Amino acid sequence: MKETLLQRLRNRKAVIGIAGLGYVGLPLMLRFAEEGYSVLGFDIDAAKCEQLNRGESYIAHIGGERVARAQQQGRIEATTDFSRAHEADALILCVPTPLDAHREPDLSFIVNTMHSLLPHLRQGQVVSLESTTWPGTTEEVLRPMLEEQGFVIGEDLFLVYSPEREDPGNPKFTTRDIPKVVGGSTPACLQVGRVLYENVVVQVVPVSSTRAAELTKLLENIHRAVNIGLVNEMKIVADRMGLDIHEIIRAAATKPFGFVPYYPGPGLGGHCIPIDPFYLTWKAREYDVHTRFIELAGEINSSMPDFVVSKVMTALNDHGKPVKGSRILVLGIAYKKNVDDMRESPSVVLMEKLQALGAEISYHDPWVPVFPPMRRHHFDLKSVELTPARLQRADCVLLATDHDAFDYDMIRQHAPLIVDTRGRFPAHLPNVVKA
Q1: What is the DSSP letter of 383?
Q2: Which residues contact 145 (CB under 8 A, 6 or more apart)?
Q3: What pLDDT is stored for residue 395 in this prediction?
Q4: Strand locations in 113-252, DSSP E?
C-alpha cells in the first residue's frame, strides 16, 4: 500500500487534496498544479470555490494569471463537498488555528475539518497537517481520530506534520523556494511525507517526529516575536531619549556579524506572530514550565497600540486639538506592507482605540478597498482616495502600514501632522512625529 502511494506521488499521478484555500492553501494548491499534479481543493466558502473554478484569484498578491493557467490546464478544482475526499491520495490541512477569548489554543477548525473528512477517508492516503499548533496536536488529536476509524497509522494510512512557512507578499521566497520541515508519526509516514513534498519545494527537511516539527514552527515564530518585542522596547527607550530608533537600527545593521536587524511597529499582525507564542506557553504549563521570556515579549508587543495612541494624543495636543472630534486618516490597514491580509492587523486595533476616544476615522489602503468582514472587528468604511486635499483636511495622518504604493512625498508635503509608526519619514521634519 505504501509503495503504491509512493509511486503515485513520484510520478505525479496522485491527486492532491487541500483543505482550506486561504493564504497558505491557495499557493500550495498552485505549486502542486504547476508541477503537474491534479489538485482538489476543499473550502467551506462557496464564493472562493466559485472564483477558483472560474480561474480567478481572491488574494491580491497571488496573480490571477497563475490561477487561470492552472484552471485552463485542468489541474485544479475547488469544492465545498468534503465527501469527495476519497478521490485524493493526499489530504493537506491548511486551516486557521486562532486563540479563543481566553487566549488559549482553538483547534476547532482542525477538528471540524477532520470530522468532515473522516467518513470519506480510505486506505492508502496520506494526511498532512500544516496549521501551526502546539507540540503533540498531530499525535494527541488527529491520530486518535484516525485510529477510531480503524486505520493503522504507518501501514494503511500515513500521518505527517509539515508546518507552513508562507510569507505573503515576499517575492524572494515563494512556496517553492522555502525548505519544508516534515515529521511523521512513524518512519513509514515520514518517508511518505518526504515524497509528498519533494517535487514541489526546493528542499525537504526531515525531523524525528511530528512533535519536533510542531515545535520547530513555534520556535521560528517565537524567535521573531521575542526579537520584535526587544526592538519595540528599545523604541520606547529611544523615544524617551529623543533618538530615532530606525537610525539606530540602520547603524547597528552595518555590523557584519552578531546582529540581525528587526524593526518596530504599531503592534504585531498576521496569523502567526501574535498568536503562535501563546500555543507554546499554554502547552508548556502541562510540563510545569512558565515561559516568562516569551510572555514578557508578548506583553510588550501587545502594548504597542497604546503607545501609538498616546503619541497621537500628544501630537494632536501639541497642535491645539483634542482627539475627540479630530479627523484621523489611517494609512494602511493590512497587517504588513504590499498585501491585502488583514489577519490580526494592529491598524484595526488603532482605529478602534482612536474611535473610542471620539476621533473621526477614515483610511486609505490600495490593497483593501473595502473594510472586510472580520470575526472581532467591524468598520463600515471604504478606502478613501489619497489626494492633497484629503491630506490637508486631516488633523492627523497615521502611517500604520507602509505600502510601497503610497506617494510619501505628497503625504509629507500636504499632511499637517504625520504620526509615523514605520520609520518612513525623516525624524527632523516639523510635521512628523515618530511612534
Answers
A1: P
A2: 111, 114, 115, 118
A3: 98
A4: 125-129, 157-161, 180-184, 204-206
Contact predicate 210/138, CB 8 Å: yes
Q: Please report, for the domain that includes residue 190, its CATH number.
A: 3.40.50.720
Selection from 429, 401, 402, 434 nearest residue 416 by Cα: 429
- The pLDDT of residue 428 is 85
**Sign, CA torsion 276/278/282/287:** positive
Distance CA 321, CA 323 (A): 7
Beta bridge partners, 433, equal 419
The pLDDT of residue 415:
97
Question: What is the block-wise mean pLDDT of the chain (435 residues), using blocks of 10 residues?
Answer: 95 97 96 97 96 94 92 97 98 94 90 97 98 97 97 97 89 90 98 97 97 97 95 96 95 96 90 84 92 92 96 96 97 94 93 97 96 83 97 98 96 97 92 94
Q: Which domain holds residue 398?
A: 228-434
Cα–Cα distance measured from residue 162 to residue 127, given in angstroms and rounded to the nearest whole number = 10
Residue 140 lies in a domain: yes
CA pair distance 423, 342, nearest whole angstrom: 21
Residues recognised as catalytic: 272
Please tell me the distance from the alpha carbon of residue 279 to that of residue 296, in angstroms, as a whole number: 15
Q: Residue 329's beta-bridge partner residues?
A: 362, 397
At 194 the three-state DSSP class reads: helix
A 10 A CB-CB count for 8 gives 17
Identify the pLDDT of residue 169: 78
**Of 307, 319, 311, 308, which is closest to residue 417 (Cα–Cα)?**
319
Residues 62 and 193 in one domain: yes
Q: Per the domain annotation, does 214 fall within a domain?
A: no
Q: State which of 157, 176, 207 marks the end of a domain.
A: 207
Do 125 and 204 touch, CB atoms closer than 8 A?
Answer: no
Q: Are 22 and 45 in contact (CB under 8 A)?
A: no
pLDDT at 268: 85
- Give the pLDDT of residue 260: 94
Q: How many residues does the chain have?
A: 435
Are the CB atoms for 178 and 165 separated by under 8 Å? yes
Strands of 107-167 (E only): list them.
125-129, 157-161
Find residue 382's DSSP bridge partners.
370
